[in-house]
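[step 3/7] inverse_fold.run input=structure_tokens len=984
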């Protein structure tokens, strides 16, 4: 459960309803599952699979021995069938839970009866249950938040959700289609109270048929996905859900405002926009080339243009208003005359038909311009980014005046021209007392998505830029090559070169492949902005940022490509440092202070309401892998406060970009609580968050689920910005957190980084090596090929491996030891910890995440991984590591329960507790299956090389080929990922 369930526990009754629905509807899923097994499996096999599930019930005595024996008796075909069966079960449960979440959200909208005067409601700053727009605005009104204060915040509200394609989404596109079909049928069956018995029976048969088709579909990719496959997958959620959901989000916030703040102006339509790393994140992914990024941008524009063409055609059918019965604005009539001159063929074809229907005629011209834009886009995609420019003037920047008349281009050069035409129609309708909701929705969509759908963020690792400049400096024969300069000398040289107008790059020089690629990215970016406008790709994220020179290097390379104008002191690129390790998070304020003090750098910053804007990205994944959960979160918290203070001091608007992962170990967890836990005063209505590939389906596959997520993220940002509890500056609390973080880090590093056997433990007792063979991403699992140490391993497979083996270690290890040491020195501190849990959103969020993760740990199963997969020569060392982990788990669990006052983990969220309990017990057979298959596979891999035709024996006397065993192991990885609802 990457984000667990979004847990729509808006009230206690809602939580009880979710619990009841899960229990009731689970009967349908289990009945369907059993029916399909009996239909699809050979005689006797279905009974054994059902026996396997029955043995996973915790009430069964000595079930572990029985499960292991049953699995040992299976041949490979039956083991694969078992892995597929349990994977199917969990994916059906996931579909069920998504519908329950969606239904609960809809129910909360229908039954909003909040009582602002209720004295038992918690202070708004301490509320952790998600709020709807209506509930939030009613509470704000009851707290006497001035309308002007709310309106000022809404005016600058800026939410950016950035979709990524990390190697965590392991379900095939084909299977996703099957799942959507099943989800639709289940919804019809569950909501069909008016269905008669014949209709219900028909739906039931359709469900069985669809699940049987799904069963016979291969879950594993037959090839490694390309980057463009990943692009297609991520954009699916825009096509199917978000394109139509966003205008509804706008309507909901406007309606809720009218109820409590009728005079407050709602935010602009594009208060929430989207970004994407899919097709543009090149950090460690050699498959993301300049050509791929260009084709991604063209593909995104193609999708948007096709949606606009469809919508405009529907509008033309709808707006059949005749001039005989309605007035038309002079501006619209004037534009029709201009269109007549520009498109005489359209006029000849349509004028007679639409002679007295001006709106239909105008929309015919609009359709033609969209078609021409679509054709041009296809030509550009086919020709590639290095094709010669056609000489047309570059488009004006986004957000320009809509009052300007269209250019003489026949296609739409910018989305502003398209909106100008739509708003001409809207203004004319308004002047005659008419409105058109579908037209308003289309204008909103044009505001939110433009022609680019989502802004592409470029990301690249910092050394790629310094290596390129070092090669350049040696070609130019500088007295001291760039690679040999100290940081001070580098900064001086970079600033000097940035402010000169002469080019630095010799046009005819030849470079290494890596440097050629680095230079090409910036030239492609310039071409992209020239054709698409700056909105398509304005942000350049520098991963592993350490120093001032890391940012200036990118600006210098951008200047050489024409993206920085030293004379006008303007930049077409927002350079964003990504501070990832604990040391870099601690050093971030000093780096940014040096840059803010330099007038030339400040002049290059983008403007936000008259203020220079700096975006800074904070990385959760690598800081966690480096220092553990508690230390990582505390350092990120402190860095935000320090950076915000620095920004205020220098008169800079700051936008924090949160690089949250799907799992708790990489910063994941319920977004609402995470946003409320941000330090007071650091949001100011501005936030940017990554949405990892693994959670896209659980958050955006259903329309109401997407709206629930978007609404709660928005209300959390508003709530944090307006009424945050000013507790982040409490010195004694900060001192306590500092001690806890330091102790936690020491304990974590002692195991993970200082124990010489940990790397071997991780490689042997988790399926990390097999995970790297899973065809789930275009990006390799390690940053550097060949390296087998932890530093080269990406944070995502690091978390994935621990999750599969049920340790989930990155999300909690070190917390118990830190808390225990504090309480040993002063037992009275327990009362303070309980107070912090009640009153400090940041601390409550930490404990909540740890509690949720601990609830999914299964040390009995994890110990089986250690005993069965650890090699004999490592047995003693591995057992010591396991016992250290087990002791820390028990300590952490007991102290979390002491702080929360719960008698059992997740007592505060019965719906989530029920879901986790269901998954914990039902996933057990998959773990034992995985261990058995990994043992067979690894035993065979340790034999001398042999051909696939030659089989090797396993401990059960049967023989299997390597490819068969690997396939079985990969299927269990799929199944466990579905059961845990998170991968990395």
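[step 3/7] decode complete -> sequence:
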């Amino acid at each position: 459960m990457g984000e667990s369930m979004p847990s729509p526990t808006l009230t206690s009754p809602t939580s009880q309803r979710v619990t009841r629905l899960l229990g009731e509807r689970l009967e349908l899923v289990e009945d369907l599952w059993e029916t399909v097994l009996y239909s699809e499996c050979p005689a006797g096999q279905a009974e054994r699979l059902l026996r396997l599930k029955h043995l996973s019930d915790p009430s069964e005595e000595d079930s572990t021995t029985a499960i292991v024996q049953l699995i040992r008796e299976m041949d490979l075909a039956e083991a694969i069938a078992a892995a597929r069966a349990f994977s199917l079960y969990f994916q059906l449960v996931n579909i069920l839970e998504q519908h329950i979440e969606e239904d609960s959200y809809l129910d909360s909208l229908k039954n909003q009866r909040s009582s602002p005067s209720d004295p038992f409601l918690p202070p708004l700053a301490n509320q952790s249950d998600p709020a709807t727009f209506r509930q939030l605005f009613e509470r704000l009104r009851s707290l006497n938040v001035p309308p002007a204060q709310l309106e000022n915040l809404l005016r600058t509200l800026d939410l950016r959700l950035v979709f990524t394609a990390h190697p965590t989404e392991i379900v095939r596109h084909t299977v996703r289609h099957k799942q959507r079909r099943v989800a639709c049928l289940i919804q019809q069956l569950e909501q069909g109270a008016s269905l008669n018995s014949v209709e219900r029976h028909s739906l039931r048969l359709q469900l069985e048929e669809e699940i049987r088709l799904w069963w016979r579909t291969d879950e594993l990719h037959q090839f490694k996905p390309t980057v463009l496959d990943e692009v297609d997958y991520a954009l699916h959620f825009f096509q199917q859900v978000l394109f139509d959901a966003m205008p509804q989000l706008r309507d909901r916030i406007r309606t809720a405002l009218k109820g409590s703040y009728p005079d407050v102006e709602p935010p602009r339509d594009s208060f929430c926009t989207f970004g994407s790393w899919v097709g543009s994140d090149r950090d460690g992914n050699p498959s993301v080339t300049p050509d791929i990024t260009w084709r991604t941008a063209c593909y995104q524009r193609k999708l948007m243009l096709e949606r606009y063409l469809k919508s405009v055609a529907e509008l033309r059918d709808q707006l059949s208003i005749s001039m005989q019965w309605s007035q038309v604005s002079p501006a619209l009539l004037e534009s029709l005359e201009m269109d007549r001159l520009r498109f005489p063929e359209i006029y000849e074809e349509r004028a007679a038909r639409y002679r007295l229907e001006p709106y239909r005629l105008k929309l015919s011209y609009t359709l033609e311009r969209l078609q021409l834009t679509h054709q041009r886009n296809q030509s550009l995609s086919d020709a590639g980014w290095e094709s010669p420019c056609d000489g047309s003037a570059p488009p004006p920047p986004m957000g320009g005046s809509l009052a300007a008349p269209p250019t003489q281009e026949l296609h739409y050069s910018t989305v502003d021209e398209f909106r100008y035409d739509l708003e001409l129609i809207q203004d004319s309708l308004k002047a005659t007392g008419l409105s058109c909701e579908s037209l308003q929705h289309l204008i909103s969509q044009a505001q939110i998505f433009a022609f680019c759908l989502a802004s592409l963020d470029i990301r690249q690792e910092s050394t790629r830029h310094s290596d390129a400049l070092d090669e350049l400096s040696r070609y130019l024969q500088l007295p001291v090559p760039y690679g040999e300069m100290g940081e001070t000398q580098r900064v001086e040289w970079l600033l000097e070169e940035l402010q000169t107008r002469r080019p630095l790059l010799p046009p005819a020089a030849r470079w290494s492949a890596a440097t050629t690629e680095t230079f090409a990215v910036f030239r492609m970016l310039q071409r992209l902005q020239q054709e698409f406008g700056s909105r398509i790709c304005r942000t350049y994220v520098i991963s592993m940022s350490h120093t001032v020179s890391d940012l200036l290097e990118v600006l210098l390379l951008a200047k050489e490509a024409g993206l920085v104008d030293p004379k006008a002191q303007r930049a077409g690129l927002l350079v964003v440092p990504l501070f990832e390790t604990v040391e870099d998070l601690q050093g971030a304020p000093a780096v940014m202070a040096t840059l803010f003090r330099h007038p030339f750098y400040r002049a290059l910053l983008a403007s936000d309401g008259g203020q220079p804007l700096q975006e800074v990205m904070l990385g959760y994944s690598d800081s966690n892998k480096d220092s553990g959960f508690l230390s990582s979160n505390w350092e990120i918290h402190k860095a935000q406060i320090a950076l915000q203070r620095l920004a205020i001091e220098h008169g800079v608007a700051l936008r924090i970009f949160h690089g949250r992962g799907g799992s708790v170990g990489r910063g994941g967890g319920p977004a609402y609580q995470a946003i409320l836990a941000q330090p007071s005063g650091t949001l100011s209505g501005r936030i940017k968050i990554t949405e990892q590939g693994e959670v896209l389906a659980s958050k955006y596959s259903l329309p109401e689920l997407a709206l629930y997520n978007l609404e709660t993220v928005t209300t959390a940002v508003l709530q944090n910005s307006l009424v945050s509890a000013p507790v982040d500056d409490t010195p004694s609390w900060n001192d306590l957190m500092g001690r806890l973080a330091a102790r936690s880090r020491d304990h974590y590093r002692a195991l993970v980084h200082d124990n010489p056997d940990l790397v071997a433990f991780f490689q042997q007792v988790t399926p990390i090596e097999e995970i790297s063979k899973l065809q789930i991403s275009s990006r390799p699992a390690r940053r550097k090929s060949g390296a087998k140490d932890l530093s080269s391993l990406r944070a995502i497979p690091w978390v994935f491996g621990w999750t599969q083996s049920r340790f989930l270690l990155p999300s909690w290890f070190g917390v118990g030891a830190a808390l225990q040491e504090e309480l040993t020195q002063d037992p009275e501190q327990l009362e303070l910890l309980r107070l912090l849990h009640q009153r400090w959103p940041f601390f409550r969020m930490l404990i909540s995440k740890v509690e949720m993760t601990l609830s999914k740990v299964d040390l009995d199963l994890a110990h089986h991984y250690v005993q069965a997969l650890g090699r004999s020569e490592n047995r003693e060392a591995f057992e010591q590591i396991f016992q250290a982990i087990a002791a820390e788990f028990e300590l952490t669990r007991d102290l979390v329960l002491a702080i929360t006052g719960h008698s059992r983990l997740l007592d505060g969220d019965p719906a989530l507790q029920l879901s986790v309990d269901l998954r914990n017990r039902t996933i057990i057979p998959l773990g034992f299956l995985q261990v058995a298959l990994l043992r067979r596979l690894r035993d065979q891999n340790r034999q001398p090389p042999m051909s696939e035709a030659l089989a090797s024996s396993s401990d059960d006397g049967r023989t299997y080929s390597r490819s068969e065993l690997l396939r079985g192991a990969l299927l269990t990885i799929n199944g466990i990922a579905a059961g845990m609802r998170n991968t990395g």
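[step 4/7] annotate
The first helix runs from residue 12 to 40.
The first strand starts at residue 158 and ends at 163.
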